[in-house]
Amino acid sequence: MQLADFPRWLRGMFAIFLILFFFNAIYALAFLTAILTTWRIDPGVATLLGSIVGLVIVAWQARLGFANLIRSQEHRAEIETNARQHQYQLDLAAEQRRTDEEKHILMSALRAEMVGLMQRAQQIEQTSRITQRLYEELTKAKAKSTVKSFILPTFEAPVYQANISKIGLLGVSLGADVVKVMSVTGVSPTPMTFEMPMDHDLMGTLYEGLADRMKKWQQELYHVAMRFRAIEEGTADPGTLTERSLAATTPSS
């Protein structure tokens, strides 16, 4: 570390320090010269000895002053480093709090949206069951078929669609389940159309399949919603959808 590395105010104090000790050295030189004169030592020798003593004093005081300046600068640098590290830790904690808060808001909003989708899926399931039975009765009555199309329902999920980029906040496991159950939302399926009227049996089968799919989707939505609830309440995670599916298909011993 060089003297030029110190701030201007420290260098100014050091210069004043040197000037004061220079005058002290002159005073010491005069005092020593007076003593040596009293002892009747040659004036030239006395002057030389006085100069040497004065230079030694100045050098010693300068060395002490410079060492004090270095220690002061090192102490200041240590304080600034600690302050920067402390501020960095505070910034990290603040960012973590912001992320946690954003995550909990997202989970609450998605959970509420899933509850709404579960209700709509239940309504479609019930309607599809009724329509299935209607076509079964038409088949029994051998009624003429006039239907040439089958339209699948659509589902809107504005919260999910607006926060797709933030799904990563939920983590890989929970985020993957959310994407899986919400992938059917925001999609407009193409209606199934036929040139000839479809048989009542075929229509009944289509509505039966739709009802079964809505029932399964309700269960999946409920399972993911319970994973949200487990995180919010600090209870055990019920597991992923894949684990749930494997548990359902694996025979118990």
Strand-residue proportion = under 5%
How much helix, percentage-wise, in residues?
over 70%
Number of helices: 6
Number of strands: 2
Strand order of the largest sheet: 1-2
Radius of gyration: 44 Å
The global form is: rod-shaped
Spell out the helices and strands N to C. HHEHHEHH
Largest sheet: 2 strands, antiparallel
Distance N to C terminus: 76 Å
Structural class: mainly alpha
Write down the domain tally.
Answer: 2
Give the low-confidence spans: none
Mean pLDDT: 81
Describe the structure.
- The chain is mainly α and 253 residues long.
- The protein has helices at 8-38, 43-140, 158-162, 172-182, 200-233, 241-249, and strands at 149-150, 192-193.
- It has two domains: 3-92; 100-241, no CATH class.
- The protein is built from six helices and two strands.
- The longest helix has 98 residues, at 43-140.
- 13% of the residues are buried.
List the helices and strands and how they pair.
Layout: H1 8-38, H2 43-140, E1 149-150, H3 158-162, H4 172-182, E2 192-193, H5 200-233, H6 241-249
Antiparallel strand pairs: 1-2
Helix pairs in contact: 1-2, 2-5, 4-5
Task: Offer a concise description of the structure.
By secondary structure, the protein is mainly alpha-helical.
